[in-house]
Structure formats: structure tokens, C-alpha cells
Amino acid sequence: MATIKTCSQSRVIQTHMVMPPDTNVHGTLFGGRLMEYLDVVAAISVRRHTKLSPVTASMDTLNFIKPFELDHSVCVETIVSGVGNKSVEVFAKVIGENLKTGERYLGATAFLTFVVTNAGPDFEMPEIKPESDEEIYVCSGYLDRKAIRMNKRDSDKEFQEKISIDLPYNK
Asked: Are strands 127-129 and 4-6 parallel, antiparallel or unpaired?
């Protein structure tokens, strides 16, 4: 029988301040930097849940809602939101804060999928149990999101088979 873990047991919170090297030409946090934060923090959530080293399979959804301005804080919070046999979905919310005024805002949300590749033959993925209203809401959509991912994976595979890997200067 698989163990059951709560979402809060996988919760990771990491906060950064937007500094000049982190910004784009608009003076806001560069999207690639936020993606790096998301990948690292989400991987820690998976590690807490499985105790195994995860590999990023996909960043399924990333919604940039409001830009993070220079000198604002960026708080990335992740939880495990669904599990398969060897796959783990992680939900991330990113809260910004204007450190001068104290105004907080939802700046981004994301879903990422990871795979644990170093699981032994006796490994059983711990089940996930949401507790708060937000966790219950987020986790309730897992099976629908997983079905969409599986359909997309099949169409992506077909698409990838049509993409050339020939050197461009040999044409």
C-alpha cells in the first residue's frame, strides 16, 4: 500500500529580489530567470515527495499574469498537485511584492511535470492528499490536465518526427 503525503509536505517557498542583472529591456524580471526559479523550486517539491532525483519532463503551463518590477520581491511557492506511477505534477504560484508599498500581487502560475528515473522495482509513488481549499481546487483538476498532456504528447511526437536535424549549412 502506497504512503499518503499531504501537499504541505511537498511545499517549497523561495523568495528573490528583482535586481538589475535579472531584468529585461522593460525593467522587469526576465521570463527565463523566472523559469529557472520555477524549475529548481518545483524539483525540490518532487524530491520532498518522492525522496528521489527528478528530471524535468515538461513545463506544461506558464502564465505570466503581472510583471515583476525592479526592486520587487518574487516569491515562488510550489506543491505536488498530482502523481502517476513515476511522474509528478507540480503547481507553482508566484507572488510579487512591491517592497516600498507592501502591495502583493499574483504574478504568475505554472504546472510542471517531472519523472523519477532512478526508482527501483519496488518503488511505490506516494499518493497526494490536498487539505486546504486552494490545494483541493488545484489537485481536483489533475486527471483532466494529465489527459490533455497525454494527448499533446502523442501529437508532439508526431510533430517531432517531421523536424529535421540536418545541419543547416549542408543544404
From this structure: parallel
Residue 83 pLDDT level (bands cut at 50, 70, 90): very high
User: Three cell numbers at 34?
Assistant: 523566472
Tell me if 114 sits within 8 A of 42, measured CB to CB. Answer: yes
Contacts of 69 by beta carbon, 8 Å cutoff, 6+ apart = 18, 27, 28, 29, 96, 98
Mean pLDDT within 72-97: 97
pLDDT of residue 30: 96
Rg of the chain (C-alpha set): 18
Amino acid of residue 99: L
First to last CA, the chain: 57
Residue 142 near residue 82 (C-beta atoms within 8 A): yes
Q: What is the pTM of this model?
A: 0.92
AA identity, residue 24: N
Angle at 130 between CA 128 and CA 133, to 5 degrees: 165
